[in-house]
């Protein structure tokens, strides 16, 4: 038998650590820093106050005007890496992280909703297959967090998983095709209750096509959609032909 603190024991302990790391690799999903669940720098992005992101979403700029949407971070860099790890690599330890980020965002936006008599917090439906794989419905989780935060702010808010969507593969589709596809597949499954105004919740917004389709679906059924909140939003990519010189 080897001594408890001898070289063999130390080698064994090191090997056990390596195996543990292989089984449960731990690194910051934002920057890859080893041996932390996430690093302070990557976390800091999610403590910023939410900003109005609807101006970067062309699909929200129709008809009577844009839907007011707030987002916490631009979908790029470490923020994008973290979102992808959460959504696609099943980092379930990030569920409470993003619930906390959404709760803070909801707190910031609460004042904007003070005049709304009753709020229905409606998540954009996730793909069923994704929810099955993850074992959790991420947009519904975020909607619950918002509703809870707003009730703490003495707003009448309830989370209602009322939309369903047959999400088709949207990669390779143009923004317009994506919007049409989203519009066709969105359904309101049940009544939201008399006089409730809707706040839509999603994890990310890219073109705004999905939020716009959800708004149209809900408003066609007779409710008003007053705002949206997402964790991240694709940043504005201004085409060179649209860049003015500011000379009127
Ligand atoms: Zn990091």
Pattern of helices and strands: HHEEHHEHHEEHEEHE
The helix-and-strand class reads alpha/beta
The oligomeric state of the chains shown is: single chain
Ligands:
zinc ion
Question: Quick one: biggest sheet?
Answer: 6 strands, mixed
- What is the class in the CATH system? Alpha Beta
SSE map:
Layout: H1 7-23, H2 40-44, E1 51-52, E2 69-74, H3 77-88, H4 95-109, E3 119-123, H5 128-134, H6 138-152, E4 157-159, E5 163-165, H7 175-185, E6 186-188, E7 197-205, H8 209-220, E8 224-233
Parallel strand pairs: 2-8, 3-4, 3-7, 7-8
Antiparallel strand pairs: 1-2, 5-6
Helix pairs in contact: 4-6, 7-8
The chain binds zinc ion.
Zinc ion binds next to α2.
Describe it:
By secondary structure, this protein is of the alpha/beta class. It has a single domain, classed as Rossmann fold (3-Layer(aba) Sandwich), CATH 3.40.50. The chain is 38% helix and 17% strand. It has helices at residues 7-23, 40-44, 77-88, 95-109, 128-134, 138-152, 175-185, 209-220, and strands at 51-52, 69-74, 119-123, 157-159, 163-165, 186-188, 197-205, 224-233. The longest helix has 17 residues, at 7-23. The termini are far apart. The structure holds zinc ion. Zinc ion binds at residues 28, 30-31, 33, 38-39, 41-42, 78. Residues 28, 30-31, 33, 38-39, 41-42, 78 line the site of zinc ion.
């Amino acid at each position: 038998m080897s001594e408890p603190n001898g070289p063999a024991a130390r080698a064994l302990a090191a090997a056990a650590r390596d195996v543990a790391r292989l089984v449960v690799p731990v690194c910051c999903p934002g920057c890859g820093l080893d041996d932390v669940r996430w690093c302070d720098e990557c976390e800091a992005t999610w403590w910023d106050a939410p900003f109005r992101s609807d101006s970067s979403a062309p699909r929200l700029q129709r008809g009577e005007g844009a839907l007011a949407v707030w987002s916490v971070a631009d979908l790029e860099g470490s923020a994008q890496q973290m979102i992808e790890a959460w959504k696609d690599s099943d980092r379930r330890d990030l569920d409470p992280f993003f619930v906390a980020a959404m709760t803070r965002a909801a707190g910031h936006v609460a004042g904007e909703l003070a005049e709304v008599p009753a709020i229905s917090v409606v998540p954009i439906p996730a793909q069923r297959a994704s929810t099955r794989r993850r074992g959790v419905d991420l947009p519904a989780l975020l909607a619950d967090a918002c509703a809870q935060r707003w009730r703490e702010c003495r707003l009448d808010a309830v989370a209602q998983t009322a939309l369903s969507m047959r999400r088709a593969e949207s990669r390779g589709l143009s923004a317009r095709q994506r919007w049409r596809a989203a519009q066709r597949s969105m359904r309101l499954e049940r009544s939201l209750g008399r006089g409730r105004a809707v706040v839509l919740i999603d994890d990310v917004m890219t073109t705004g096509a999905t939020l716009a389709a959800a708004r149209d679906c809900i408003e066609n059924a007779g409710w008003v959609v007053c705002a949206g909140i997402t964790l991240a939003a694709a940043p504005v990519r201004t085409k060179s032909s649209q860049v003015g010189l500011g000379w009127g």
